[in-house]
């Protein structure tokens, strides 16, 4: 879904004056967050998608959610189902709703993806972390190996250009670009199935990448690793591309386990 607009809610308190929010270009991971859902427990699934989007930082603090009608179309559910899910998410304190011309449902201003990620890390077992890493590495490494065999040099050059413009962006924008570049690199495999699975996994893995690279130095290291993977794909070296990917994932998982252990020891 490419537009982020909103709709008023009759239960919300009126705002004192119009609130203006600058339009933001949606990033690729929103494509997997707003896909149609199944028939069972629809309101609960809409709720879970929205909560995940906020917790993982794909919907940012202060950002306006899509309107009820847009969400209904994207999820393939009735507007009343979306309304029910929004009421629950509002009750969790994750969104607020304003009335008026510039109203709608907005992510609360104090939403902190890093805090959400730390809480999720504390709840996750070491076995589950290693399993997530194994899944992510298996899909991503297979895809970049395939990309190294199939990609055209002009395609890898376009992906590289996005990394080269990273310094012109703020930290939050850099995180989004790094996620997008990883997905774009996988898309060079020319496999729609692998790309869709990478988008889903990237949405799950991205908050953990925030934890191990919370500042500009951490983001620079992530960018350097991605650049090495792009080099391997551009050089048509599938083994190097896969090895670099697997090493990156293993290092992230090890860093997460260390963070987890240090957090528990300090409690």
Question: What does this 3D model show about the protein?
Answer:
The protein is mostly helical. The protein has eleven helices and two strands. Strands 1-2 form a two-stranded antiparallel ribbon. Helix 6 packs across helix 9 and helix 8 packs antiparallel against helix 9. The protein is globular, with a radius of gyration of 19 Å. The N and C termini lie far apart (42 Å).
Features:
267 residues; mainly alpha; 2 strands; disordered N terminus
Please give the share of residues in helix. Answer: 55-70%
Protein structure class = mainly alpha
Count of helical segments? 11
Strand order in the largest sheet: 1-2
Largest sheet, described in full? 2 strands, antiparallel
Rg over alpha carbons: 19 Å
Mean pLDDT: 86
Order of helices and strands: HHHHEEHHHHHHH
Q: Ends: how far apart? A: 42 Å
The strand count comes to 2
Beta-strand content bin: under 5%
Shape: globular
Low-confidence stretches: 1-23
Task: Give a quick precis of the structure.
With 267 residues, the protein is mainly alpha-helical.
How does the SSE layout of this entry go?
Blueprint: H1 30-33, H2 42-55, H3 68-75, H4 79-91, E1 95-98, E2 104-107, H5 113-123, H6 126-150, H7 153-164, H8 171-187, H9 192-212, H10 216-234, H11 238-266
Antiparallel strand pairs: 1-2
């Amino acid at each position: 879904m490419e537009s982020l607009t909103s709709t008023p809610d009759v239960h919300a308190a009126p705002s004192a004056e119009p609130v203006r929010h600058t339009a933001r270009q949606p990033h690729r991971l929103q494509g997997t967050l707003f896909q149609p859902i199944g028939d069972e427990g629809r309101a609960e699934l809409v709720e879970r998608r929205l909560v995940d989007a906020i917790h993982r930082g794909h919907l940012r603090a202060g950002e306006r959610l899509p309107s009820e009608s847009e969400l209904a179309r994207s999820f393939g559910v009735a507007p009343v189902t979306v309304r029910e899910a929004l009421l629950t998410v509002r009750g969790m304190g994750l969104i607020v709703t304003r009335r008026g011309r510039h109203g709608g449902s907005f992510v609360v201003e104090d939403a902190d993806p890093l805090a959400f990620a730390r809480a999720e890390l504390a709840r996750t077992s070491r076995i589950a972390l290693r399993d997530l890493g194994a899944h992510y590495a298996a899909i991503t490494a297979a895809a970049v190996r395939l990309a190294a065999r199939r990609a055209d040099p002009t395609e890898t050059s376009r992906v590289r250009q996005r990394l080269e413009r990273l310094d012109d962006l703020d930290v939050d924008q850099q995180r989004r670009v790094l996620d997008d570049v990883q997905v774009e690199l996988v898309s060079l495999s020319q496999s729609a199935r692998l790309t869709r699975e990478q988008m889903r996994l990237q949405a799950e893995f991205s908050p953990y990448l925030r934890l191990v690279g919370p500042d500009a130095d951490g983001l620079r290291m992530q960018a350097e690793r991605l650049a090495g993977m792009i080099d391997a794909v551009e050089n048509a070296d599938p083994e190097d591309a896969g090895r670099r990917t697997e090493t990156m994932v293993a290092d992230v998982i090890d860093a997460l386990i260390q963070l987890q252990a240090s957090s528990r020891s300090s409690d």
